[in-house]
Amino acid sequence: MAETVGLSLFGLNRIFRKNTGLAPLAYARAKRLNGAAILLCRTHKTILDIALTSGYQSQQAFTRAFSREYGLSPAQFRAKFRQDIHHAPPILDLVRAVQVITLPTQHLLGRRYLGNYADVPAHWLDFSWRLRMANIDPSGLTFMGILHDDPYLTPPGHIRYDCAFLTVGHSSITPHFPACVPITLTGGRYAALDQHGPYIERIAQTIATLVIQWLPATSHQLALVPAFERFHHAPWAIPSDAWALTAHIGLI
């Protein structure tokens, strides 16, 4: 990693810790275990399956690492949070409003941000500034926010959010926007829900609402792919109380 970004090991650790609060190896371990925590609470996969999916060679090794991180064994952690899935009554209007659609693989160009849901409007303002600095015209671009974490299970300040746009028909932009990287969203079935209004007060919890209240009322299961928001307009170009988007979660 240090060679890739042209830093010494000391320099990489210093900058990485400044931006994430953790050294690279500790950050990777925390993210791996946080992903396992999400699987424990939001799916019915066995603990052994989750251990292997998370990169551990055995359930015992996974249980030791998870218990050190969370103070509970995987089974205890799942039991504690299982009520979040089953005890929240489904909202009938929500169930009726959600559409199940099939999407192709989507290719984007984006930038990773770290923070809370409340930081998302600021992420987009920074992203729009970078577009201007690269002399990229945002008109005609389709913007998407990609969410990699669960706001109920990921530690505060560590939610990974990608500001991105679809590159179909815009391949000439790529060489001029070096601050961003290619992103691929896996094709397949998704639950989609249109939302509009203030982002913080109304829209920010839409993904969690789909997972906690809509999913248990259906026969679908959560897929191991990022959730995403497809914006109807550039999010920084409209009033803060009038954001409009379609939220998506992957299904199996």
Question: Low-confidence segments, ≥5 residues, pLDDT <50?
Answer: none
Helical stretch count? Answer: 10
Order of helices and strands: HHHHHHHEEHEEEEHHEE
Q: Report the span from N to C terminus.
A: 34 Å
Mean pLDDT: 85
Choose one word for the global shape.
globular
What is the tally of beta strands?
8
Specify the helix fraction band.
Answer: 40-55%
Query: Widest sheet: strand order?
Result: 1-6-8-7-3-4-2-5
Query: What would you call the quaternary organization?
Result: single chain
| Main β-sheet description | 8 strands, antiparallel
Radius of gyration: 19 Å
Looking at this protein, list some descriptive labels.
single chain, 8 strands, alpha+beta, 10 helices
Description:
The protein has helices at residues 2-5, 9-20, 24-42, 47-53, 59-70, 74-86, 92-97, 120-133, 199-203, 206-214; strands spanning 99-103, 106-115, 143-147, 159-166, 181-185, 188-197, 227-231, 243-250. Strands 1-6-8-7-3-4-2-5 form an eight-stranded antiparallel β-sheet. The radius of gyration is 19 Å and the shape is globular. The model has no long low-confidence stretch (mean pLDDT 85). With 252 residues, it is of the alpha+beta class. Helix 3 crosses helix 6 and helix 4 (47-53) packs across helix 5.
